[in-house]
Design goal:
InterPro entries: AAA+_ATPase (IPR003593), ABC_tran_Xtn (IPR032781), ABC_transporter-like_ATP-bd (IPR003439), ABC_transporter-like_CS (IPR017871), ABCF_ATPase (IPR051309), P-loop_NTPase (IPR027417). The protein is α/β, with parallel strands linked by helices. The protein has five domains: 1-65 and 181-242, P-loop containing nucleotide triphosphate hydrolases (Rossmann fold, 3-Layer(aba) Sandwich), CATH 3.40.50; 75-178, no CATH class; 256-299; 326-527, P-loop containing nucleotide triphosphate hydrolases (Rossmann fold, 3-Layer(aba) Sandwich), CATH 3.40.50; 558-644, Helix Hairpins. Helices cover 46% and strands 18% of the residues. It is built from 20 helices and 18 strands. It has helices at residues 40-48, 81-86, 90-108, 115-133, 139-149, 166-179, 196-207, 220-226, 245-280, 287-299, 366-373, 408-413, 424-430, 447-459, 477-489, 501-504, 526-546, 551-554, 563-602, 610-644; strands at residues 2-11, 14-24, 29-33, 55-59, 66-69, 184-188, 212-216, 229-234, 237-241, 326-337, 340-351, 355-360, 380-385, 391-394, 465-469, 493-497, 510-515, 518-523. Helix 3 (90-108) packs antiparallel against helix 4 (115-133) and helix 19 (563-602) runs antiparallel to helix 20 (610-644). The radius of gyration is 32 Å and the shape is flat.
């Protein structure tokens, strides 16, 4: 599908790729890996046609459609969420408009026997066939299914896109790309703004998708569950492994070990040759040998290896000051923003030494509860911290609170104590600050770099309760390993809000699920929780199937739709009722037209008129389809009324 041949990319004298070649096949699931700055995002941009290589050829057939999701998107305002999702079906919407225009013209014309009229009928038939082949009647249902899978509520569909945060707007862009059904998906960190349930939905979608997928992700579990091929970018070269990420890690370690041995042998050979040249450079009797060694040195294809792997760095938090056995006690805690209730009468306790994971769909109150714990917002009920509890808090806005006029090194040196001060460069290296990076001023750092720096500061503070809100969004896999190991060794209490299953695996001993304004406690790790959730979902499905016929009568008050959802449902019901009314008008028109043609066919003079027969048969088919559509619309209306509870 896509092939690159002898690809070279250079930036200001720095070579990012050197004569790289490989092919993306039809059903490939490729994970692009490599350290930050290796060129993963650049390669996706080149595939998508947004960047040209310095040299080499990128080949793909003209009919191939590319779906590209970058890390940053320029959003356009003026549409609702559903309208923006439906914009993915540009061709279908164009056909829909054209069909409506043709139908209007046909309804107004009476020259049934003219050549122009027959051409109009043929054009309508062609457009209808294309419309149905492209699934035109299902685009709203497809859009709804995709938006719900990515975490949106039905009540969100009619909201303007500019009402949503950047993360949610990225979900809208992802939905549009999925709905376009391209031949190749190019996804750059698609899970950064998704919760665990949305990530699992996206995994299921991509696993069964008939096209190719090329993605960049720091979510190890996501890569393992989707990819069947791992392409590593290292010092300008491509290493292609026909295995998922976890198997790649093992093969990569073996290759690196062999590469290092070869590199050391070559370095010894180079040094011996250089020593010989230097030693005998000015001896006439050795001039031939010296010149031979010089040429030999020039011909050597020097082996390059990536920077030293820092994933084995052992980083420890300072000993946690001892707190009381009861770290936090919550009773009857509720929080609402205006009329919107987020948390309702929560009750739980957190004990010293626990490592908890807060999970659930976005908007269910995880970050709100964190802000309550930090005493940043008002609430009702009680949230009482235990004796001598000292909190270390990480959130995205922490990065904006750093002193912009200090360097990266100074920022960490200010809080480092004891032996840690001798390891500052190694610690910074583990979090992707290397070489000249450590002398940069904070004010010139990107948002991601600031977040990583804020995380390092937190690692060095003497606290006994760590509260981390999405700590891994800007970390690569090695940095996440360093952080996870440090948290596992931390002797205090930890609360982590995260969607990264692999990061939470082996870290959390208890999972708090946020759902329906409450929290449910699940003992065990994150994969125990996920396994139980899948079983719960199956049980819920069975229950729904069993009681479907009496669902309206037995619906409990807890399942009543809130005001906004009822308002949105009322809009849908009104829209459906208008569609039914329009359909009934079409049926009446078709029946009238058929009756007219039956009268004409009853006349013996018209019995041989083939064009009249064709129009008659076409009208009957149109009526049959309209009747079917009318029945489907009425069924959908009944479901909507039942869902609303009227």
């Amino acid at each position: 599908m896509i092939s690159i041949n002898n690809l070279t990319v250079e930036f200001g004298g720095f070579t990012l790729f050197k004569q790289v070649s490989f092919i993306v096949n039809t059903r490939d699931r490729i994970g692009l890996v490599g350290k930050n700055g290796a060129g993963k995002s650049t390669l996706l941009k080149i595939f998508a046609g947004f960047q040209a290589p310095t040299a080499g050829i990128v080949s793909l057939p003209n009919e191939i459609k590319i779906g590209y999701l970058p890390q940053q998107v320029n959003h356009i305002d003026g549409n609702t969420v559903m309208e923006e999702a439906l914009s993915a079906f540009e061709e279908v919407l164009g056909l829909e408009k054209e069909i409506a225009e043709i139908n209007l013209e046909i309804a107004e014309r009476t020259d049934y026997e003219s050549e122009e009229y027959m051409k109009l009928i043929e054009r309508l038939t062609d457009r209808n066939d294309r419309y149905h082949m492209m699934g035109g009647e299902n685009i709203e249902a497809e859009s709804e299914r995709t938006l719900l899978g990515l975490g949106f509520l039905r009540s969100d569909f009619a909201r303007q896109t500019n009402e949503f945060s950047g993360g949610w707007r990225m979900r809208i862009e992802l939905a549009k790309i999925l709905l376009r059904r391209p031949h190749v998906f190019l996804l750059d960190e698609p899970t950064n703004h998704l919760d665990i349930e949305s990530i699992q939905w996206l995994e299921d979608f991509l696993k069964t998708y008939p096209g190719a997928v090329v993605l960049v992700s720091h979510d190890r579990a996501f890569l393992d569950n989707i990819t069947n091929r791992t392409v590593e970018i290292s010092v300008g070269k491509i290493y292609d492994y026909k295995v998922p990420y976890s198997q790649y890690v093992v093969l990569h370690a073996e290759r690196r070990e062999q590469q290092l041995k070869t590199y050391l042998n070559q370095q010894k050979q180079i040094k011996d040759t250089e020593d010989f040249i230097e030693r005998f450079r000015y001896k006439a009797s050795k001039s031939v040998q010296v010149q031979s060694r010089v040429k030999q040195l020039e011909k050597i294809d020097r082996i390059e290896i990536d920077e030293e792997d820092t994933s084995q760095l052992s980083l420890k938090f300072p000993p946690a000051p001892r707190s009381g056995d009861l770290v936090c006690e919550v009773k009857n805690l509720s929080k609402a923003y205006g009329d919107h209730l987020v948390l309702n009468e929560l009750e739980f306790v957190i004990e010293r030494g626990e490592k908890l994971a807060f999970v659930g769909k976005n908007g269910e109150g995880k970050s709100t509860l964190v802000k309550v714990l930090m005493d940043e917002i008002e609430y009702t009920g009680t949230c009482k911290l235990g004796h001598n509890v000292k909190i270390g808090y990480f959130a995205q806005n922490q990065a904006q609170m750093l002193n912009e006029n200090k360097t990266v090194f100074e920022t960490i040196d200010d809080v480092a104590v004891g032996d840690v001060r001798t390891k500052i460069r190694s610690i910074l290296g583990a979090f992707m600050f290397r070489g000249e990076d450590i002398d940069k001023k904070v004010k010139v750092l990107s948002g991601g770099e600031r977040s990583r720096l804020a995380m390092i500061r937190l690692l060095l503070e003497p606290v006994n309760l760590l509260v981390l809100d999405e700590p891994t969004n800007h970390l690569d896999m090695k940095s996440k390993d360093v952080l996870k190991e440090a948290l596992n060794q931390f002797d205090g209490t930890v609360i982590v809000v995260s969607h990264d299953r692999e990061f939470l695996n082996g870290l959390s001993s208890k999972v708090y699920e946020f759902t329906n304004k409450k929290i449910k406690e699940h003992l065990g790790g994150i994969y125990d929780f996920l396994q139980a959730k899948k079983m719960d979902s199956l049980k819920e499905l069975e229950v729904k199937n069993t009681v479907a016929s009496v669902q309206v009568e037995v619906a409990s008050s807890d399942n009543k739709l809130n005001y906004l959802e009822r308002k949105e449902m009322s809009k849908k019901i009104s829209k459906m009722e208008r569609a039914i009314s329009n359909s009934e008008e079409n049926i009446a028109r078709f029946e009238e037209k058929i009756a007219e043609m039956e009268d004409m066919l009853a006349n013996s003079e018209n019995i041989q008129d083939q064009s009249l027969f064709a129009k008659y048969e076409k009208a009957k088919k149109d009526l049959e389809k309209e009747m079917s559509d009318w029945e489907n619309l009425n069924e959908e209306l009944e479901l909507l009324i039942a869902e609303k509870g009227e």
